[in-house]
Amino acid sequence: MTEKTTSSDASVTTQWPLWEVFIRSRNGLHHQHVGSVHAVDAEMAVENARDVYTRRGEGVSIWVVPSAQIVASDPSDKDSLFEPALDKVYRHPTFYEIPDGVANI
Amino acid sequence: MSRTSELPALQALADGCLVLSHRLSEWMSLAPTMEEDVALGNIALDLLGQARGLLQQLGDEDRLAYFREAQEFRNPLICELPNGDFAHTMLRQLFVDAWLADVWPQLAAGTDDGQVRGVAEKAQKENAYHLRHSTSWVVRLGDGTEESQRRMLAALDALWPYRGEIQSDAWHARVADVLTQATLPVPDRDAWTQRTSADGWHTEHLGYLLAEMQSLARAHPGATW
Lengths: 105, 225
Prior knowledge:
The complex is a heterodimer of chains A (105) and B (225).
Chain A lengths: L1 H12 L4 E7 L7 E7 L3 H12 L7 E6 L11 H5 L23
Antiparallel strand pairs in A: 1-2, 1-3
Chain B lengths: L1 H24 L8 H25 L2 H6 L10 H4 L5 H25 L3 H29 L3 H14 L9 H13 L23 H15 L6
Helix pairs in contact in B: 1-2, 2-6, 5-6, 5-7, 5-8
């Protein structure tokens, strides 16, 4: 039993930090979250992200961010944060005509 | 005329890329992390693409890859050496990448064959990434823990004699720079080297590699999928 605890502790401490990966698919668009990689430092995180997420020409730019640095909303706050927006349809831009020349909307 | 004098070098380059690609593919599913597994697979595929581009210029690529005997291969011996541990694989990769970093630009500038130039120009970009990858691993492991440095030193001892076919002034400058960053010793550049494969002499390892690489094509000649 003690042995088991030790080995699982070891696997936790040897785990490399997690990084979130954002890829920009082409110039002019924004970076989008695509997944995560493990890496010991920022340089390795960019290399791993390149190897794992851009094998099929998906991107022209990569961002990596330490996952530990992401600040997330609390799931238990879901109602107070998001429900008030549900009945406010007038906030959607559906009451406007979008000119034909506008791309990427 | 320049084509003829170029042929031996092209053969060495094509065979080197092919054999090293196969060695790296042996890491698939065994690399230290999933990310590194994909990285090694990408590098192996780049090398395979480079080998194919050159073999197609030298003749029938399938015949050249699958139906030649070990004695007919001209790859630098270092490309056929077994993977060893991860430190050994990364140092071997650094040595080869540092060689190709000069070979591809020379070939791109010097060849009068459009196809070969195309391969060389594409390979230059691919190799720049491979070199960056192997450099960062050699530095990380050489300047890492006591254990990782011990493994890098063992790899350096084992691989240094195999620099004979790939070394040049530029190669020594590149490699010495990385070894210094990695806090590893720079071995004597005049130290003894292994023979070359120029006369068909190889290590015992190439036969086993080819047996695996060629077995399917030889069992089913001409098969397609």
